[in-house]
Amino acid sequence: MAGTDGTGDARLFTGPRGGRISTAVFRDATHWDEVVNQFGYEHLRRHDLRHTGLTWMADAGVPVHHLQKVAGHGSLTTTQRYLHPNRKSVTDAGALLSQHLQRSTEGSTTAQPTLIDGAFSPRAS
């Protein structure tokens, strides 16, 4: 854990007295209310940044179980609620699946994808 004190609860960012950053400290340090009002984003909440940050990390390829740890969530289901993939991410995932299925059937006249328990799986006919 480079840059930390080596303990499991080391913080990446700390408040002015070395502890957890509260929403009030964040709001005051960043002049949040003034900035969002100035740019016309009055509806934007500080909590929305957690969703944005986790989504960007997921889009960058960070595994979801790492995101769970970063967010401090007890369940992967909670972490998944924070992820909002854009259309390109979903399209890219479909392209990766297509490439995988194409490779798994190349060179074989018997391997055909089939639906097993609600999921496609390559199998020999």
Oligomer: single chain
Our Rg estimate from Cα atoms comes to: 22 Å
How much of the residues is beta strand, in percent? Answer: 5-15%
Computed structural class: mainly alpha
Order of helices and strands: HHHHHHEE
The major beta sheet can be summarized as:
2 strands, antiparallel
Number-wise, the strands total 2
What overall geometry do the principal axes of the alpha carbons give?
elongated
Q: Compute the number of helices.
A: 6
Strand order of the largest sheet: 1-2
Mean pLDDT equals 81
Distance between the termini: 50 Å
Helix content: 40-55%
Low-confidence runs = none
Structure description:
With 125 residues, the protein is mainly α. Helix content is 48%, strand content 10%. The chain has helices at 23-30, 32-38, 48-59, 64-71, 76-81, 87-105; strands at residues 111-116, 119-124. It has a two-stranded antiparallel ribbon. It starts with 22 loop residues before the first helix and ends with a strand.
